[in-house]
Write a structure and sequence with these properties.
The complex is a heterodimer.
Chain A lengths: L6 H8 L4 E3 L24 E6 L17 H10 L7 E5 L9 H15 L7 E4 L2 H4 L5 H7 L4 E5 L2 E5 L12 H12 L6 E5 L18 H8 L5 E5 L6 E5 L2 E5 L31 E8 L4 E8 L4
Chain B lengths: L7 H26 L5 H7 L4 E8 L2 E3 L2 E5 L4 E7 L4 E5 L4 E5 L5 E5 L5 E6 L12 E7 L1
Parallel strand pairs in B: 1-4, 3-9
Antiparallel strand pairs in B: 1-2, 4-7, 5-6, 8-9
Helix pairs in contact in B: 1-2
């Protein structure tokens, strides 16, 4: 199948003003081949917002405004000229703690802060900081299931949990659930996967991987239109595995260095001359009729 | 004292032979545990491999800097002082779960020169992300 935007063009676009197009979605779903969405919704353009890695509870020099950054991000989303259809949080809502009581306090505080978002349709998923120490128990008390699906205007969304197992595994049971869900989808379904860790081996030396992520990619591969949005690495990153596009989002607490660019995976230092540099969120415009996504990176605070 | 009918030199040789047999069995058993080679071949073809003991605890490895020689195999014996930990050296495609109360053994034949990271790949607590070390391989 020929894609309207090939990888070379995709990478070129990725360098332009923070706007990219997901290249995995081709023109197969052209007029006449569209399918109606579940629940009677028809395909139409829409956009949603991805926020990630707010690490509520973190304190330290990498972010002198640790208690204010998430609130600024909420205000920034609320100030968008047109509200998104929904918002997704791709994990590490809170910063980890060994104390279960403090973990619940942080989850409660996070939930309270994001309740100020005007858009109320919010889809959460955990990161390892939220869920790995208690297999997602506290997280589920506040936000419910850690893996689920939903459909929106012709797009099938799958939230995958690769963090509740501290081994960074999706696990056999969830993989079977994924296979069963995919078997119900038309082959040319427009599929978006939301998850925390990269499903591919981005940089295992820094734990930027999912141990059984290749199995999930294998299950998704028969579907020609799959895009993955994830977090974990606190920076924008774009990668193709075959025809599947993977897009990592910036974080909302501290940016991390490019994989392997320094000896340790330590946060990049705060720059007083450019506060909030490297932090941000993105809007994702779904052009459903062409099965294409347009990504726009937005700052926490305008320069 | 019990008398022996054997001469001292014979006794020495016999004891030596028994010890050698015991050594061979130990080495062969080690090879079996590591899942490599057959009993007889490993016992006769390879010298005893160096064993490096590594203790994991929140949130460090001791030692956390290893220096190895290229091509010289070693066995890492990993234990944990507290919770379940991981040991992963992606550049050598080796990893292990370190389960409390057990010894995890990983055989490594360094095939490249340089300094490479190892890390805990099982989320173990608030210091997990700094729980790592290096393997330096020299010629």
């Amino acid at each position: 199948m020929k894609h309207p935007i090939d990888r070379r063009e995709f990478l070129k676009l990725a360098g332009l003003g923070g706007v990219v197009f997901a290249s995995s979605l081709g023109a197969a779903r052209a007029a006449g081949t569209m399918t109606a969405a579940k629940g009677g919704e028809t395909d139409e353009d829409f956009y949603f917002v991805q926020l990630s890695d707010s690490h509520w509870g973190f304190e330290g020099p990498p972010n002198p405004d640790a208690k204010g950054t998430l609130k600024k991000a909420v205000a920034a989303v609320n100030s968008l000229s047109e509200p998104p259809d929904f918002i997704v949080f791709t994990g590490d809502l809170t910063h980890t703690t060994d104390d279960p009581k403090v973990r619940r306090q942080r989850l409660a505080q996070f939930k309270e802060i994001v309740s100020a978002l005007k858009v109320k349709d919010i889809r959460f998923m955990p990161g390892e900081h939220d869920a790995s120490l208690d297999h997602g128990e506290a997280y589920q008390e506040f936000f419910g299931k850690t893996h689920y699906t939903f459909d929106h205007k012709g797009v099938h969304f799958i939230a995958l949990d690769n963090v509740s197992d501290p081994r960074a595994m999706i696990g056999e049971e969830q993989l079977q659930w994924l296979a069963a869900d995919l078997s119900q989808q038309p082959r040319d379904a427009n599929i978006v996967v939301l998850t925390h860790r990269p499903l591919f081996d981005l940089y295992p030396q820094w734990d930027w991987a999912t141990r059984d992520g290749a199995q999930a990619i294998g299950l998704l591969s028969p579907h020609p239109h799959v895009t993955v949005f994830y977090g974990h690495i606190h920076q924008e990153h774009h990668k193709m595995t075959g025809h599947i596009a993977h897009h990592a989002a910036k974080g909302l607490m501290f940016p991390l260095p490019v994989a392997g660019s320094q000896a340790q995976r330590t946060p990049l230092p705060w720059d007083p001359a450019q506060p909030y540099r490297g932090l941000g969120f993105r809007d994702i415009e779904a052009e459903a009729h062409e099965a294409k996504f347009k990504l726009t990176e937005l700052p926490v605070q305008k320069a | 004292m019990r008398q022996s009918s054997s001469s001292p030199s014979f006794q020495y040789k016999k004891r030596d032979a028994m010890q050698a047999t015991r050594r061979r069995l130990t080495i062969a058993l080690g090879g079996l545990l590591l899942g490599t080679g057959t009993l007889g071949l490993r016992a006769t073809a390879q010298p005893k491999e160096q064993v490096i003991k590594i203790l994991a605890r929140k949130f460090t490895y001791t030692p956390n800097k290893l220096t190895l020689k290229k091509g010289v195999p070693v066995v890492l014996e990993l234990t944990t002082a507290d919770v379940l930990m991981g040991f992963s050296a992606p550049d050598f495609d080796i990893r292990a779960d370190i389960i409390p109360g057990r010894v995890a053994r990983v055989r490594l034949v360094p095939d490249k020169i340089g300094t490479f990271a190892f890390l805990c790949d099982i989320f173990c607590g608030s210091g997990h992300e700094t729980m790592n070390g290096t393997i330096t391989v020299v010629s």
